[in-house]
Specification:
The complex is a heterodimer of chains A (about 775) and B (about 450). Chain A folds into 3 domains: about 190 residues, Penicillin-binding protein 2a (Domain 2) (Alpha-Beta Complex); about 300 residues, 3-Layer(aba) Sandwich (Beta-lactamase), CATH 3.40.710.10; about 140 residues, no CATH class. In chain A, a hairpin with a 6-residue loop joins strand 13 and strand 14. In chain A, the strands form 7 sheets. In chain A, strands 2, 3, 4, 5, 10 and 16 form a 6-stranded mixed β-sheet that branches. Chain A has a 5-stranded antiparallel β-sheet with strand order 12-11-20-19-18, with helices on both faces. In chain A, strands 1-8-9 form a 3-stranded antiparallel β-sheet. The longest helix of chain A has 26 residues. Chain A is built from 30 helices and 22 strands. Chain A has about 775 residues and is of the alpha+beta class. Helices cover about 40% and strands about 15% of the residues of chain A. Chain B is mainly alpha-helical and about 450 residues long. Chain B contains 20 helices and 3 strands. In chain B, helix 2 packs antiparallel against helix 4 and helix 11 runs antiparallel to helix 13. Classes of the chains: A alpha+beta (about 775), B mainly alpha (about 450). At the A-B interface, helix 1 and helix 2 of A face helix 9, helix 16, helix 18 and helix 19 of B.
Chain lengths: ~775, ~450
């Protein structure tokens, strides 16, 4: 029998070999051909840990750190290790309840698993950190982790420095995935503009993790890791003391201050009012603070120095004079017999000065800011016989004005600068269908810097630099140099080259012309409109400005109090500082703007203020000339939001508050001595939209009446949200409920931040209005 | 086990012993690689008996001692006690029913205290092998008769049935490997071919994409027609036979298996089968999906059932050509692969030593199997030969199924890799089996009955 089946042993051998061949083929497929498993293995076991470098420090011109780094602490939790802790005590330390505690632990588990540390509470306030630090040993599974945070030691220059925030999807997409979710980037100001320099270079460490997501060690002995390179430090031209003074002077005012060193184009100070404490956007409450800033209708987040567009007003006049002199349409001896009104065109232009001979020559005309003289000058410039037509005259004029840096972005090293507007033939063609002549604009006030002209404070300051420099300027900028190691020098050139370039835009205007305009500007301070700015021992050349201030509120164009402006440079012989000040709603430029500029000049040139001048600072800082309509607008926005929230959530507690007579009395108190047309209109309820019907009620009104109106009315105003959108909004509202807060301007004129629980939906349009008009 | 005593070592096939030794060593090292953590004291780990690899080392030594005892035994002892041993094995398996303790879903294990546990279904392989060899080697057995074939099948399959009743399906399948022995002794090849083909076809239906498989089957049929074209010319019926077989195969693949899955099995059973081969089961309609979801919810399981196979494939696949090196495998060391010391030990080798290492490792196994076959063929006694084939078949089945399940070619039915997987019973059983063979082979000149 054995012999009988001998051959079968070979078949069995064949079967064995065959099966092994199949196995080896599959192994070949898995291990050699298919790359998918190697990738999956990496995904399984490799963890890319980003190492964040410290961001660069920003210094002022004297080497003081204006923007620095500090360490705050995050409370981390590793859920699997949390055992037998005194939850009650822990929650008491953190100020949360046990329900919140449990939900956060669950969140952490869902986010990173039970075995890896997750942030439990980020950026602990110092006192909470101190309390926790002492007791952290009692809570296994919790630990405190350092986290570098930006700090502003001088509490100043919020708009300039900007702030950092987590990247959003737009930045992620634009950066081509250079940034990762959770990265911090500069979101405004220098932080954003010099992001590349400040951020440094992210390092990467490869870690191994196990099946429970615990990091167990370095991968390949750190062979593939790249170290983090710290961000570069920036040195700016800014004088932080000057900046602080400027911000202090703008307290309670809407407006902007820009101070430039004409010799370099370096910006010494740039303030915008109202402003905010930059540290509010770094610490533990940054989200709540941000929400409150966004919801504030006065727009504290807005940098009016580069984004506020104002009519140039009389500050344009030195430029108009220079253009006239260069075109030869006027001479230093030209005068205009002005008696308070300019009648050269069908539409008369008023002049503040009435005394005869106040514009007997150019110098006097500048000193007294004669509107008639400069309206006439513009008319002469446009109707210049050399160009044969008003069209070409206007375009030539525009060329000049553009050369002075108006009407286009200057290129300051801050993001989102506005360009302003200088009208040209196209502008007037559009409005007047080609039927216009020089009187159209002169009558509109273009000759005195109004009509369709709008400029930013930075542009005004820069134009004064050109006047001071007699024709050239350097692009205004903050950054003086980037601190770096030697071999990288060429890079600095590319970054700063455009700031080192001298723009000789108007050097063809004769020195005499400049001298006579300088003299006129000096006379402004000595004998003219700007005497408030005089400083003994310093020859200041200046020009006041007063521009009409219109604003569209609820669809109606309303004339508000004039914007006061002041430009100057000093000393005349060797200009070291040029300043532009704009204060909205402040009346004549000599009232508030001139003293502010004067104080800044003195502070900068003498490095200190005289004793009596310090009192002056306090006097100016103590005055509140915030437009009072803001109170109403803010109240309206907040109550409308409360009404929307009430409609969507059915929770009307917040809305009820706005109907409470006592609360309304407090919130809407503008001290009664108010004769603003807006307020009158509001009180008459002629221009209020139906959504805020409750506003018409006086504090003495019965609450029953008031309760009905707002709940119904806003519904009509809202777009019909479908159910999906509604739930989405609800979610937003829910989160906004915690962080929403509201600014209140009380009767004393101080600006307080008061937390209430008003919800956040959108930023009201009014914010734009308040700044651009 | 180099015995100094010449009477013991006489006739011993040392190559088998060396292969046994190297495989067991690889096993200990692999388990060490899978469970060693940075900073552990290696020496202490090996002698403490607290770690898996130290225990495996102990079993390895015990296996050597047991082997020595077996080599000291008279070969006639095995023939004489074969039937007795078989009865003992069956009784042991029956004892499981009242005395079993439930471990990991199986009911086939008897525990003696905490330290020792016995799986009779595993142990029984030796007794069945001996008993089958004994039956086939009887003078009065004429294996050409279907009656004898049936008896042989019953001997092999009774423990298999008992094993299934103990919910240990994997081990029961091992007993089917004895058909290879019967095949060698004259079982009509058609039974083996048909049975094997059917099994392969069903597995292939699950693993391979349907259309591809249909094409492959058609290709095989065309190849067969081409190879057999002369016979076909002579006798037309061969062609019809081939076409008929092709038709049946495709029919099974396209219609029978899906029909059975859709209408005979419950959805969860189908899902389990899919899980076992590491595939995602996509239910056909929403009703079945809902049923499945309920099932999952009620069972409360978090991880996919096919998690094991997916992770095992990742581990092996990430090994590449030469592997990551001993103790460097990220997947096996950080416990992504479950059960990696026992059933999925091959992952450690695949990841650590790559394609070359795995092939070499499998080469040792094929060497072992081929060696056993040639040892079998040189026996004078039918008993020894049958026994040797039995050993080869059982080893073959274990190796192929175990490796195939780690690389996603076979369903996950927890059976260990011989000599390598962690586990005392398994290592000792296989060692005893092999040493009995070595003992019988040493007496190959004798005719044992």
């Amino acid at each position: 029998m054995p012999v009988f089946n001998q051959s079968r042993s070979n078949i069995i051998r064949l079967i064995f070999a065959g099966m092994f061949l199949i196995i080896i083929a599959q192994l070949f497929h898995l291990q050699i051909i298919s790359a998918k498993y190697k990738r999956q293995a990496q995904e399984n076991a490799l963890f890319r840990k980003s190492i964040y470098p410290t961001r660069g420090i920003i210094y002022d011109r004297k080497g003081r750190a204006i923007l620095n780094n500090t360490i705050l602490y995050d409370l981390m939790v590793t859920p699997a290790q949390v055992k037998n802790i005194d939850t009650g005590y822990f929650c008491q330390l953190l100020g949360i309840d046990t329900l919140e505690f449990r939900s956060r632990i669950l969140d952490a588990k869902a986010k990173n698993g039970a075995f890896r540390p997750t942030i439990f509470e980020d950026l602990l306030p110092p006192d909470m950190y101190a309390r926790l630090e002492e007791n952290i040993w009692k809570f296994p599974g919790f630990n405190l982790q350092e986290r570098p945070v930006r700090i502003y030691p001088f509490n100043a220059a919020a708009h300039i420095m900007g702030y950092v925030g987590e990247v959003d999807s737009v930045i992620l997409k634009r950066s081509n995935n250079f940034y990762q979710l959770g990265d911090y980037v500069g979101r405004s100001g220098l932080e954003q503009y010099y992001e590349k320099e400040l951020m440094g270079q992210r390092g990467i460490e490869f870690w191994l993790k196990d099946n429970k997501n615990r990091l167990v060690g370095h991968y390949q002995n750190k062979l593939l890791d790249t170290p983090a390179v710290a961000g570069k430090n920036l040195h700016t031209y800014m004088d932080i003391e000057l900046q602080q003074l400027a911000e202090k002077l703008l307290t309670g005012k809407t407006g902007a201050v820009v101070a430039i060193d004409p010799r370099t184009g370096g910006i010494l100070a740039m303030a915008s009012g109202p402003d905010f404490d930059p540290n509010r956007l770094t610490g533990p409450d940054k989200q709540a603070n941000y929400a409150s800033l966004v919801l504030d209708v006065s727009g504290p987040l807005l940098n009016r120095a580069i984004k506020g567009q104002y009519p140039a007003g009389s500050t344009y006049k030195p430029l108009g004079a220079l253009i006239g002199l260069d075109e030869g349409v006027i001479t230093p001896a030209s005068g205009y017999d002005c008696h308070g009104v300019y009648y050269g065109c069908p539409h008369p232009v008023k002049c503040d000065e009435h005394g005869p001979g106040h514009a007997a020559n150019l110098r006097l005309a500048i000193a007294h800011s004669c509107n008639s003289f400069f309206s006439n000058t513009l008319k002469l410039e446009i109707d210049n016989p050399e160009y044969h037509s008003a069209r070409r005259g206007l375009m030539k004029w525009k060329e000049y004005v553009n050369a002075f840096g108006l009407g286009h972005r200057i290129g300051v090293d801050l993001p989102s600068e506005d360009g302003g507007l200088i009208p040209d033939t196209a502008t007037y063609d559009k409005e007047y269908h080609g039927q216009w002549n020089s009187c159209t604009m002169v009558g509109g006030g273009l000759g005195i810097g109004q009509d369709k002209m709008s400029v930013t404070p930075l542009q005004i300051a820069n134009s004064i630099c050109i006047v001071a420099n007699k024709g050239y300027y350097y692009t205004p900028h903050f950054m003086e140099r980037v601190e770096r190691s030697g071999e990288e020098a060429p890079e600095e050139d590319t970054l700063l080259r455009r700031f080192r370039q001298k723009h000789e835009v108007l050097t063809h205007i004769s020195n005499d012309a400049y001298e006579i305009v300088h003299s006129g500007m000096q006379d402004v301070v000595e004998i003219g409109t700007g005497r408030a700015a005089r400083i003994p021992g310093i020859n200041i050349c200046a020009k006041t400005g007063t521009a009409e201030n219109y604003r569209v509120i609820d669809g109606r164009r309303i004339k508000l109090r004039d914007n006061g402006m002041f430009v100057c440079f000093a000393p005349r012989e060797n200009p070291r500082i040029a300043i532009a000040v704009v204060v909205e709603n402040s009346g004549h430029g000599s009232v508030w703007a001139a003293p502010i500029a004067s104080l800044l000049v003195e502070k900068y040139l003498n490095d200190a203020l005289r004793e009596e001048r310090i009192k002056e600072v306090d006097r100016i800082a103590g005055v509140n000339i915030m437009p009072k309509f803001l109170v109403r607008v803010q109240f309206r926005d907040d109550s409308v939001r409360a009404a929307i929230w009430a409609r969507q959530s059915g929770d009307s507690t917040r809305l009820k508050k706005y109907q409470d007579p006592a609360f309304r009395a407090v919130m809407l108190d503008t001290t009664g001595r108010y004769n603003n047309p807006i307020l009158k209109a509001l009180q008459r309820n002629t221009i209020i939209n139906p959504g805020i019907g409750s506003l018409r009620k006086d504090p003495t009104d019965q609450p029953g009446n008031g309760a009905q109106a707002p709940q119904v009315a806003p519904v009509a105003n809202l777009p019909n949200a479908d159910s999906g959108k509604r739930t989405d909004l609800n979610g937003k509202m829910d989160s906004a409920k915690r962080i929403g807060s509201r600014r209140k301007i009380d009767s004393a004129g101080k600006v307080n931040n008061r937390k209430t629980d008003s919800g956040a939906v959108t930023v009201p349009d009014n914010k734009k209005d308040s700044t651009q008009k | 086990m180099s015995q100094r005593n010449p009477t013991i070592s006489k006739g011993v096939d040392w190559s088998l012993v060396w292969i046994w030794f190297s495989l067991c060593s690889i096993g200990v090292i692999s388990i060490f690689a899978a469970s060693y953590r940075d900073g552990d004291n290696i020496l202490q780990g090996f002698i403490s008996l607290k770690t898996d690899y130290s225990r495996q080392l102990l079993f390895f030594i015990m296996g050597g001692i047991l082997g020595t005892f077996i080599l000291l035994t008279d070969s006639k002892f095995f023939t004489a006690t074969a039937n007795l041993g078989y009865s003992f094995g069956i009784v042991l398996m029956l004892l499981v029913f009242p005395f079993h303790s439930r471990i990991k879903g199986t009911e086939s294990i008897i525990k003696f205290g905490n330290a020792f546990q016995l799986q009779p279904a595993d142990l029984c392989k030796i007794f069945v092998n001996l008993a089958l060899a004994k039956y086939l080697s009887r003078v009065e057995t004429n294996f050409t008769r279907p009656r004898s074939q049936l008896i042989a099948a019953v001997i092999a399959l009774v423990p298999a049935m008992l094993s299934i009743m103990q919910k240990e399906t994997g081990l029961s399948l091992v007993y089917f490997s004895f058909f290879l022995v019967m095949f060698r002794e004259g079982l009509p090849s058609s039974i083996l071919v048909v049975g094997f083909s059917f099994a392969v076809l069903v597995v292939a239906t699950l693993v391979v994409e349907p259309n591809t498989l249909a094409l492959v089957l058609t290709g095989i049929a065309l190849l067969a027609i081409y190879l057999l074209r002369r016979q076909i010319k002579r006798t037309r019926s061969v062609l019809f036979l081939i076409v008929g077989i092709w038709f049946v195969c495709v029919g099974i693949q396209r219609f029978v298996v899906p029909f059975v899955f859709d209408h005979v099995f419950q959805p969860y059973q189908v899902k389990r089968i899919y899980d076992a081969i590491g595939k995602d089961y996509v239910p056909k309609d929403q009703a079945t999906e809902a049923v499945l979801e309920n099932e999952v919810r009620s069972s409360g399981k978090k991880k996919d059932n096919n998690y094991n196979v997916k992770q095992s494939k990742i581990a092996i696949g990430s090994g590449g050509l030469i592997g990551k090196g001993l103790l460097k495998g990220t997947q096996t060391r950080y416990e992504f692969v479950p059960e990696q010391r026992t059933d999925f030990i091959f992952c450690t080798i695949g990841e650590g030593f790559g394609f070359l290492g795995s092939t070499l490792f499998l080469g040792i196994y094929i060497l072992l199997l081929m060696r056993i076959v040639s040892v079998a063929e040189r026996q004078r006694s039918v008993f020894s030969r049958c026994y040797a084939y039995g050993v080869a078949s059982v080893l073959f089945f274990h190796i192929v199924i175990n490796v195939c399940m780690t690389i996603g070619l076979a369903p996950v039915i927890g059976i260990p890799l011989p000599f390598v997987s962690y586990g005392g019973t398994s290592l000792l059983t296989f060692s005893v089996m092999l040493f009995i063979l070595v003992r019988l082979d040493a007496d190959r000149q004798m005719v044992l009955r």
